């Protein structure tokens, strides 16, 4: 009896299950052992990606997970269709299955742009669910259940989409696009300052090809979101092309077509771009404080933007003051040996960098211990001794004078620091400020994490972190807004608790 014995013979090979597993059909003419009881026969293999190019937001209080059967399940805020489980939903503490039409290929990835959700299936089909905020759907419709974008606008019915990229920040302005398997870029929705590179500032209800990508295939793309929007396209040679608002694009003038931006030299390929646009809370009116950072493949970090306001020092070189396109320092080389970096504006400049040796450096404003210190700094300091070591993934969120960070180590442990109200950093304390001197309290090996909610001014942090473990479980810590942490009573969680599928 395979249920009692826990083994299945396949061609002379004995395949064993684990305790708590029951034999199931896998829906593809095969059989497999699956966990029952707390997991209803399924395990998670991937979390929704919520990293926008901006610094302020992740997803709009919800999370989704791709399961081993290729289906998707989501929890948290369901309004407007962002969970894809039908009309009438408000919020779900327990995961609901996304209602794809029968025959939909297995889903391989999910991406959030604050309120709207995008899915890519194994055949490269692109799907959307959500409220169509700022014409984000690409189908000119609100979609309570997933609707396929292929066949709308320039996106062919058989086109294989490889990646979705999104931008959103403190002042909103959702922007989104995708890259297909041939390197063509499509964008839709808003087109502020001509950031889509179409030659004008008119938006599009449907996917529209970005002209530059017809000439030069694109391998990666970023869009800043916020008011002063720009897009950043990296071609297959690693060259950066930008369009949009002058200061954001680096061209000193608004650029309606993508133009090359390689001031460090065309022989130095670009890896990634991060941006931040948030207001300085202590100054009346909208100040639109902005910062930008570019990481090259060789590990060099370049930045520009605002460094004025209440606290400066975000460059990490000892220099303080704004650096814009007219500055002799523009773009400013700030550090070497970098894998990834985040910078946050809002009148309180601060930056964090993941280094090639697996350590983390920080500089700038010390509020809530985000710079890993108890005092402001103007130079890079290695932080989190004994904890921020062997780091393989870093995420930072913030705006105004609040910020929080989470890092995953190669040994499967995670470290959170900065703003920790509502239990965001998962160390059991729920303290407002946290140094990077404690681990997330989860006794299972973590393979990935993602984030929902937002972080702004100090304790105005409504954010949760979600951890995927090696055995396919998901654990969540942090705020309870719209049940995004899975707590049915609506209480914050100071330590990770399992999401029951």
SSE map:
Blueprint: H1 2-5, E1 7-10, E2 13-16, E3 21-25, E4 31-35, E5 44-47, E6 62-67, E7 72-77, E8 91-97, E9 107-113, E10 116-121, E11 126-130, E12 143-148, E13 161-169, E14 172-180, E15 185-189, E16 204-209, H2 212-215, E17 218-223, E18 230-235, E19 240-244, H3 246-249, E20 255-260, E21 270-278, E22 289-296, E23 301-305, E24 332-335, E25 338-344, E26 350-355, E27 360-364, E28 377-383, E29 391-399, E30 402-409, E31 414-418, E32 446-455, E33 461-469, E34 474-478, E35 493-498
Antiparallel strand pairs: 1-2, 3-4, 5-6, 6-7, 7-8, 9-10, 10-11, 11-12, 13-14, 14-15, 15-16, 17-18, 18-19, 19-20, 21-22, 22-23, 23-24, 25-26, 26-27, 27-28, 29-30, 30-31, 32-33, 33-34, 34-35
Brief sketch in words of this structure:
2% of the residues lie in helices and 44% in strands. The chain is mostly beta strands.
Beta content comes to 35-45%
CATH architecture annotation of the largest domain: 7 Propeller
CATH superfamily of the largest domain: Regulator of chromosome condensation 1/beta-lactamase-inhibitor protein II
Q: What best-fitting shape do the alpha-carbon axes yield?
A: globular
Radius of gyration: 22 Å
Q: The CATH topology of the largest domain is what?
A: Methylamine Dehydrogenase, Chain H
Helix content: under 10%
Quaternary state of the chains: single chain
Q: Largest beta sheet: what is the strand line-up?
A: 5-6-7-8
How many domain regions?
Answer: 3
Keywords:
single chain, 501 residues, mainly beta, Methylamine Dehydrogenase, Chain H, 3 domains, 4-stranded antiparallel sheet, 2% helix, 44% strand, globular, disordered N terminus
